[in-house]
Amino acid sequence: MNSNFDSKESFLSYKLNIFKELYNDERERRNIASQKISRIIPLIVAMFGGDTYIITKVGEKILNNEGFSSDVRSVASYILCTVTIISGAILLYFLVKSYINFNNKMLDPNKFKEMFELGDKEILENGYKETVKEINEKLYEQYEKITIKLSNEIDKREDYITKFYLSLITNCLFACFTLIVIWI
After folding, report:
1. Range of the domain at 139
2. Domain count, the chain
3. pLDDT, tens digit, 9 for 90 and up, residues 137-158
4. Which of 5, 38, 123, 157 is least surrounded by CB atoms within 10 angstroms?
5. How does 29-41 read in b/e, with b if 16+ C-beta sit within 10 Å?
6. 150-170: string of b/e by CB count within 10 Å (b at 16+)?
7. Cβ atoms of residues 174 and 83 within 8 Å
8. 107 phi-psi bin (left φ>0, alpha ψ -120 to 50, beta other)
C-alpha cells in the first residue's frame, strides 16, 4: 500500500483504482468461465447424440422382444439406459445453470451521467476539489458493490461449471457402459 497519501482524496482515488482493477479482473474471469463451456459444445452435442442413439437401440430391443426381457444382459442395458438418461438430464440442468442462469453485473452508465451532470452544478457551488471527492466516493461505492456481486456470481457459475463437467464425465461413462452391453 502506498504510504505517500497526501490527503483523503488521494487515498480515495487509490481505492477507486484498486476496485476498477478488481472489476476488470472479475470481468476477465467471467469471460474465461464462458469460454470453458463454449469450447466443449461439440462434445455436448455428441453426448446427446450418443444418448439418443442408446435410447433408440434399447427401445428397438424392447419392441423386438415385444416387451421387457428378463435376461441379465437386457436388465443391465435397461438399468444403464435409465441411468444414462438421468445423467443426461443432470448434464442438461447444469449446462443451463452455468450458461443461462448468470446475472451479469455491470455498471450503469446512466448513474455516471447523472453524477457528472450534478458534478458540473456542484463545482460552481462547492468547488472543484470537493465535487471531485464526492464523485470519487460515489464511484468507489459503485465499483466496490459491483465487484463483490460479480465475484460472487462468478464463484457460483464456476461451481455449476465444475458440476457440469462431472456430470458430462458421468454421462459419458454410463453411455459407454450401455453401448458395450448393447453391442455384446
Report:
1. 8-183
2. 1
3. 877 788 788 878 878 888 888 8
4. 38
5. bbeebeeebeebe
6. bbebbeebbebbebbbebbeb
7. yes
8. beta
